[in-house]
Design brief:
Two copies of one chain form a homodimer. By secondary structure, the first copy, chain A, is of the alpha/beta class. In chain A, 45% of the residues lie in helices and 11% in strands. In chain A, helix 7 (131-141) links the parallel strand 2 (122-127) and strand 3 (147-150).
Chain lengths: 237, 237
Amino acid sequence: MAHSEIKALLFDVFGTVVDWRGSITREMQRFGEAHKINQNWEQFALDWRALYQPAMEGIRSGDRGYVKLDQLHRENLQQLLHGYELEALSETQLDHINRVWHRLQPWADSLPGMNRLKKNYVVASLSNGNVELMVNMARHSAIPWDMILGSETAQGYKPQDKVYLHGAQMLGLKPAQCMMVAAHNDDLHAARSLGFKTAYINRPYEYGDSQARDLEAEEPWDIVGEYMTDIATGLGC
Amino acid sequence: MAHSEIKALLFDVFGTVVDWRGSITREMQRFGEAHKINQNWEQFALDWRALYQPAMEGIRSGDRGYVKLDQLHRENLQQLLHGYELEALSETQLDHINRVWHRLQPWADSLPGMNRLKKNYVVASLSNGNVELMVNMARHSAIPWDMILGSETAQGYKPQDKVYLHGAQMLGLKPAQCMMVAAHNDDLHAARSLGFKTAYINRPYEYGDSQARDLEAEEPWDIVGEYMTDIATGLGC
């Protein structure tokens, strides 16, 4: 297909650009060793992430006004304290743990692919993470965003239409001039329904051995690749 | 003074980071030569900029809903077409001229200073320029923003309070954790009144030989410098 109309790439981030499961597991393993807390920290990461969609649903449905993801993460963390022996920690320590999402590390192929893409296209995040989280993550991990868009600037949560449409609008672009890049079929489905181009990256280990969804492209997305560098190659970068 | 509380630097852009007068003059001189239009293009740049504040005032006052700066620039350009022999140009050509604001070049000291500052602080724009304009300018001139804030994300125009406060809020910071960097005393005055720290850069040639304002710091700003690198030095970077 011809991609000459595309001006910007909008990226999902958690799971697509960065490895939240591995990053949280590694950091909590170090934390656990330092604090003599012996737990299955990979399961902790998975349990924390499992509370993510339900927490956003209250805001999407309108039952609750917009609050940013840092706050939802903190509320969700609260539910895990007892099960993971974290109840005795101070608020400062818990805030540090909560901000592990600000320190997530990219998959090995992410920066090589994104740095190639950035030469020819605007690269912007379109994540459910809030701005501060995304700014800190980018500074921590050298993610070369031209702009941070998504949930907080649009005051909603994907897959709400307004998050995608506000992102394109802020860049002065029509949806067809934007390509959504994600490892999640539902994210691309929502973007495509609004006229966005779509690129799927296969991340079958995002959730570890037990991953049951997003094991392959479920629709004929405009580009399908195993790595971010495949997206760059697909766009001639 | 101690600056340990500061986490982010928020920059005015037109005149502070980039030289709009020189950039527009140079590009229009080349355009004039190519199209056999002989005009005083520095005066054109000054006349265009002189329409900037009046155009924003209608939005600040509430007489007009928010429109982005690209549109105000285009409306203002329309008023100059007759006087500068630009009436015969196509809409495509006029759009290209209007987007000269997307291609402004930094003062010589801006990037050296900002790249030093970025190592220790979040660096974000807090300009009246719209997001697309700022993204394109950053890509054109290698300006190392961590985030683009200001007018369009806040849906207002400086010196409206909400533009400054929304910028700090998006970064998850209190005003006192942010330092506004500008070559304009009124911009810093507005920021300081809301609790921001302030850094003044002297740009006495922003408007050329005839400059009548902002020839010096008019209040005891937290940092005062001749160059962006002085701000970096002042903050220990």
